[in-house]
Specification:
The protein has about 230 residues and is mainly β. Helices cover about 5% and strands about 40% of the residues. The N and C termini lie close together (about 10 Å).
Amino acid sequence: MKGIIPKNKTKGTDFCGVNSYYYIIRSDLGCYMQSSNFNKGLDITVLSLHPACQNGDHYLGSQNGNFYIIKGKSYRRVSNLTTDNDGVVYSLHPNCQGGDHYIGAFGKFYIIFQEKGTYRRTTNMNRDSDAVEYPLHPNCRDGLYYWGRPNHYYFLKPVSEWGLEYYKGTNFNKNECTGVYSVHPDVVNFLPGGLSMIKGPAFGIWENIKTITNDSDTPVTWQKKIVKKVDQD
C-alpha cells in the first residue's frame, strides 16, 4: 500500500513539538527524529528512545521543555526521551481520556476527538483544570497526525496530488491557517509508509544491528548502523 500509515494504525508512533523542535516518535524502531524544520529538513538528528518512553498511545510536548507520554489512563512526564530524566507518572483525568490525538501549544493541552468533531483544552490533564470544549472545524478534522509548538498547532494532511503536506495554524475551531507546507523527503522517509512514497510501493524489514548498554559514569560514543532491506513491486 502506498502512502503514510495514520496514527490510529501505528501504536507508539506520533509527532510532537517542544520549543524550537519538531519530533517524530518511532517506538517500533526504538528511536525518534528531531528537526527544526520539516519543510526544509533542517537540523535532523535521530536519537535513541528510552525503553520507559516507548510504546505510548500518544506523545506531546510543552513549552516548559517536557514530553508527555500517554498510556491508557495515565501519562508519564519526562524532560528527555533518550534518558528518561525526571520521569514521573500521573493519572489521566477521565475527561481527558479516549482522545484520538493530544497536543501541547499556547501553554495548554489539547485533546482532539476526530469522530466527534470536537477538541478539549485544559491546563492540566491530571485535574482537567480550566477545561473548555470546542467544535473542530471541518477543514481541521482529517489530519493523520497532530502536534503543537508554543505558538502554533500543526497536522499532517492526507496525501494529495501535491504530495505530503502539513498544516500550520492558530485556531482549530475557526480554521485560522497560517500556512501549508510540503514535507522534506528525509522526513517522509522516517514516517511509517514514507518509503513507499519516495521509492514506490514496497515491503521491507528494519534490522537493529547493534545494541549497547552503559551502566557506568563514563560516556561511551558509538555509531548505530541500520540496514534497510527493500523489495520493490
